[in-house]
Amino acid sequence: MSQVVTRFAPSPTGFLHIGGARTALFNWLYAKRHGGRFLLRIEDTDRERSTQGAIDAILDGMRWLGLDWDGDVTYQFARAPRHREIAEELLAKGKAYRCYASAQELEEMRERARAEGRPPRYDGRWRDRDPSEAPAGVAPVIRLKTPQDGETVIEDAVQGRVVFPNKDIDDFVLLRSDGAPTYMLAVVVDDHDMGVTQIIRGDDHLTNAARQKHIYEALGWEAPKLAHIPLIHGPDGAKLSKRHGALGVDAYRGMGYLPTALRNYLLRLGWSQGDREFFTTPEMIEAFDLESIHRSPARFDFVKLENMNGHYLRSSEDSELLEALIATLPYLEGGAALAAKLDDKRKTQLAAAMPGLKARAKTLNELVDGSGFLFAERPLTLDAKAAALLSPAAKAHLAALTEKLAALEEWSAAATENIVRETAAAQGVKLGDLAQPLRAALTGRTTSPGIFDVLAILGKEESLGRLRDQAA
RNA sequence: GCGCCCAUCGUCUAGAGGCCUAGGACGUCGCCCUUUCACGGCGAAAACACGGGUUCGAUUCCCGUUGGGCGCGCCA
Known about the structure:
This protein is mainly alpha-helical. The protein has helices spanning 18-33, 52-65, 80-92, 103-115, 183-193, 206-219, 249-254, 259-267, 281-287, 302-314, 318-328, 335-341, 344-358, 364-370, 372-375, 384-389, 392-406, 413-427, 431-443, 451-458, 460-471, and strands at 5-8, 37-42, 74-75, 96-99, 141-144, 151-156, 160-165, 173-175, 198-202, 225-229, 232-233, 298-299.
């Protein structure tokens, strides 16, 4: 009876953006924290703008983020008859009325209000008119009769007590002239019917909360508790645009972020308990509360997300990370090419290289990039910095080293290290003077996992081949 | 324009009247470690928007100003 029920209710007019993802996360966390249910509702009453592609993207994004919902997805449009029924009920109770004002009339109303410095709102001209005055051939909308005096008080878990003057709340539309419900009506009816006990949504809905409260009151329904969380801003403090963070969550997957890292980052954006930065999923569920949500908006910072992602990458088990990497390959830059070459041998090499690779990567894309040397075909193409390392003198040193390595019987990181160190000493050069050209010849880069590990992973034949390629 | 919300280092934040010479994290800079890069370690620079109150005492409470955000659709 007192079970907590939360919901995430996106409209499928675009992808699941980062702000929506955080809202979903908070709802999910709250439900988990209280042993409740987390429901998903697609608000597709706007037939013009809702698309199946957007629905798929949202569901896919939720799954990727690991935000599983309970039960079936509710599609709001399918509930239109129920919404109409409630609108009729309100009409019958005298809590709502038919309005025949034309679009042009409404436009004039708004313009006049603006000109006179009043809030642009419906003036209630059909509020008390007799239905017999209805113009012929005009399909009416149904509007709620809202209180004209006094104030509406919202008790919000995040915003506290917020008071709106009722004179600023007009008789808004519940049912459109074509019989379709508006968002305002649908959201109230659905939340009620779905048994939602706690609404957590963006604070762009705060003023809507006051309107919706009047619907609940007109219906005699108990309203869910509210929590309006601040929106996420872009790095410049302005609204999130596609330029900075308002990308679909699939874009974050494509940028190589781990869902666990993104969740942790999102949690800490506008929610905090002391100085603590990292939370595992069970820890987040245990710690999450509405009281610790801030009222001030936070800016999205890719740099910090990246750092956090690096932390998660490094602390991942090699096998799990490899699995995650392979699963994400189709979405990563250069991932498809890598996937095509990933046979059992390469997979084994990749697994062996993982400790050295993950220490140098902040994203899965960097992991892909760093593992490039495993998949490169001889003769390797060297990048500029690597090529610069292979001076004639360095090549001479390498040539000598190559012959010693060729004579090596037991090929291991430890064994090759001995040879390389001995050779450097014999040649009277520092280890780095030999190791760096070696790395350049072996990987084509100046950055890679430890060079002795690279030798071991590549194997004797391939290593010697690459060295001889560069000797010429 | 009207209504509502917000305001601590560049960013995320700690701070709930004296514990603050304002703490942590990311980023930045310097040093160390090192075969490179990265990781890691050490250290540095860096903030209470402004103005009034209240108080013995304000980052913390109140008011105003400024700045930012959101809302004001037969969109959601």
